[in-house]
């Protein structure tokens, strides 16, 4: 655990705690290790169960957890069996995307709190179902959230606060890019990778979704989407490795987004926000630049405030941020912050910072990109959310 991540964990543990809560981690793959690091960061969380149909992966994960914690979690091949365990109070879903909603529904209906790794799922019809179930569960005090860890980054919060205060003036436009690299071996490593049914998409759905989520957190809800997708550098997969899209937001602001898994060796993800009184750049979760209107009318002091904000976030190495290859295992600090929010929501009986219906808007936006690319024309997000395009079979490349 890096020093910055350790500091984050200590800060989150400093607050009022809930009683010890038993956690079932579903999925013993790569992202499972990120969630294990987050779970271990909280004294009130105890990993009591692991769920994975692949026995060797589950056992190896249990061995590692026992070595780290001194207690061996119980092993289950099915979530249904783990939900019969009375010690399981929080279910963390870290399986391939195509299983997220199904497993989230099982946990919510069993009156368990739920954290679902992003994205929410691959099918908007199922997303509408889990929204209804989550709302009903919330009325019973059950908290459901979807990982959107970069909404909890300091950089995102500072820029979001500046927008809310009007310090950027009228926000006019944004540019977002997620140029990552995935080898052919990455896609060949699992039959589910690069498929519409289980991955739900490619460069946007699985890598660029982080950047898209920050874009929507700062810019609000899109109204209209147009896009192009292509498969250019990889073989034997169904989904895109390159996409570009334009968005028109409720505010009237415009944005451009690019995502790729064909940008060797992998560059930094970046969100640039431009306004009539100021602008900001977030680069791989760090506040690279910000110019704000401090209210002086002549711009005086704005640069000082911007410099102070940037300096406050620069700790030297920035090692808690993701690497240029986007390896989430190296960056659990954002997950830790979101776990703290979920625990606070459970303790205070409030909504979490990221609700399931909010995550569904991100999923709908991804779906809108793919529909627009398939049809070769702009689409309205509300039409996608309302189900008008449910029967469209999306393709890579479109018309």
What would you say this structure looks like, in words?
This protein is an alpha/beta fold and 399 residues long. The chain folds into two domains: 3-149 and 336-352, 3-Layer(aba) Sandwich (Rossmann fold), CATH 3.40.50; 152-323, 2-Layer Sandwich (Dihydrodipicolinate Reductase, domain 2), CATH 3.30.360. The chain is built from 13 helices and 14 strands. An eight-stranded mixed β-sheet has the order 13-12-11-7-10-9-8-14. Helix 1 (3-13) packs parallel to helix 11, helix 5 packs parallel to helix 6 (124-138) and helix 6 (124-138) runs antiparallel to helix 12 (356-375). It is globular and about 55 Å long. The protein starts with a helix and ends in a 14-residue tail after the last helix.
Name the CATH homologous superfamily of the largest domain: Dihydrodipicolinate Reductase, domain 2
Reported for the largest beta sheet, the result is: 8 strands, mixed
Intertermini distance: 47 Å
Q: In percent, how much strand structure appears in the residues?
A: 15-25%
* Global mean pLDDT: 88
Number of DSSP helices?
Answer: 13
The level-1 CATH class of the largest domain: Alpha Beta
Provide the succession of SSEs: HEHEHEHEHEHEHEHHEEEEEEHHHEH
CATH architectural type of the largest domain: 2-Layer Sandwich
User: What number of structural domains do the residues give?
Assistant: 2
The name CATH uses for the topology of the largest domain is Dihydrodipicolinate Reductase, domain 2
Q: Report the C-alpha radius of gyration, rounded.
A: 21 Å
pLDDT < 50 runs, ≥5 residues: 296-302, 313-331
The helicity comes to 25-40%
Strand order of the largest sheet: 13-12-11-7-10-9-8-14
């Amino acid at each position: 655990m890096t020093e910055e991540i350790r500091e984050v964990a200590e800060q989150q543990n400093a607050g009022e705690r809930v009683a010890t809560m038993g956690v079932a981690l579903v999925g013993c793959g790569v992202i499972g290790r990120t969630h294990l690091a987050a779970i271990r960061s909280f004294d009130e969380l105890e990993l009591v169960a692991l769920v994975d149909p692949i026995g060797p992966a589950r056992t190896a994960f249990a061995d590692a957890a026992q070595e780290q914690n001194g207690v061996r979690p119980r092993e289950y091949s099915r979530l249904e069996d783990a939900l019969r365990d009375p010690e399981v109070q929080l279910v963390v879903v870290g399986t391939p995307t195509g299983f997220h909603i199904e497993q989230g529904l099982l946990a919510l209906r069993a009156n368990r709190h739920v954290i679902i790794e992003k994205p929410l799922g691959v099918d908007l019809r199922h997303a509408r179902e889990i929204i209804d179930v989550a709302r009903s569960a919330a009325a019973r005090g059950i908290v459901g959230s979807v990982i959107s860890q970069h909404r909890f980054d300091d950089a995102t919060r500072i820029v979001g606060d500046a927008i809310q205060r009007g310090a950027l003036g009228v926000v006019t436009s944004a540019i977002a890019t997620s140029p990552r690299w995935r080898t052919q071996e990455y896609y060949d490593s699992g039959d589910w990778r690069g498929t519409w049914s289980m991955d739900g998409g490619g460069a946007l759905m699985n890598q660029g979704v982080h950047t898209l989520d920050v874009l929507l957190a700062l810019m609000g809800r899109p109204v209209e989407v147009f896009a192009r997708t292509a498969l250019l550098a990889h073989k034997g997969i169904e989904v895109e490795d390159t996409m570009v899209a334009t968005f028109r937001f409720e505010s009237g602001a415009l944005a451009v987004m690019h995502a790729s898994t064909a940008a060797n060796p992998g560059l930094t993800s970046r969100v640039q926000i431009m306004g009539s009184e100021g602008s900001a750049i977030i680069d791989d979760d760090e506040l690279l630049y910000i110019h704000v209107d401090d209210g002086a009318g002549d711009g005086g002091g704005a640069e000082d405030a911007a410099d102070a904000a940037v300096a406050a976030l620069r700790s030297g190495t920035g090692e808690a941020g993701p690497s240029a290859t986007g390896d989430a295992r190296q960056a659990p600090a954002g997950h830790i912050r979101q776990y703290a929010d979920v625990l606070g929501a459970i303790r205070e009986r409030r909504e979490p910072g990221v609700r399931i219906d909010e995550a569904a808007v991100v999923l709908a936006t991804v779906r809108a990109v793919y529909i627009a690319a398939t049809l070769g024309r702009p689409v309205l997000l509300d039409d996608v959310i309302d189900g008008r395009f449910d029967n469209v079979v999306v393709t890579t490349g479109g018309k």
